[in-house]
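Bug #2210: token dump truncated for Peptidase P60?
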Amino acid sequence: MSTMARVALLTLASLLGACASHTPPPPVVQKQVVFSNTPEDTSPIAADVLFRALGLVGTPYRWGGNTPDSGFDCSGLIKYVYNDAAGISLPRTTREMIVMRAQSVGKDKLQTGDLLFFATSGGSQVSHAGIYVGEGRFVHAPATGGTVKLDSLNKAYWQKAYLNAKRVLPTEQHLAHNP
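Reproduced locally. Full output below:
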């Protein structure tokens, strides 16, 4: 068989093989939430909360834990950060936090320092919480055997479990009117 015949045969075989292959499935598109918070929107108190929370990433999870030395559960982390960085005393449990008197905030209006609440066991009963740090991300103490971590609200798991957000930090407008 001549070289030209071999090239033609190989070309024909590769074209037929390409036609017989399966087309890849279309990509799965997750609904993305647009977050409006920018660094310029962050108050000095919210910035302190942000840096304190981020500084605790990697701290071991411990159920009932509420200090960097003992480790944290989700509500212990929140209580510690707000007390340490902003001098704000919050309730100890997520159930107490979600019902406290504080402004509820829409997902599209989140600001650095807002508290996020989740129903990780399904239903509508709060079972987890975190601190929003901006750009669709939050810091939380997720589970036994894990550590405090930075996570994304755009993950399908967190979108499904999301319940509510509350603003407990004073806003810039509030600070300007109440020096």
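Output looks complete on our side. Strands lie at 66-67, 71-72, 103-104, 115-118, 128-134, 137-140, 149-152, 162-167. Marking as cannot-reproduce; reopen if the truncation happens again.
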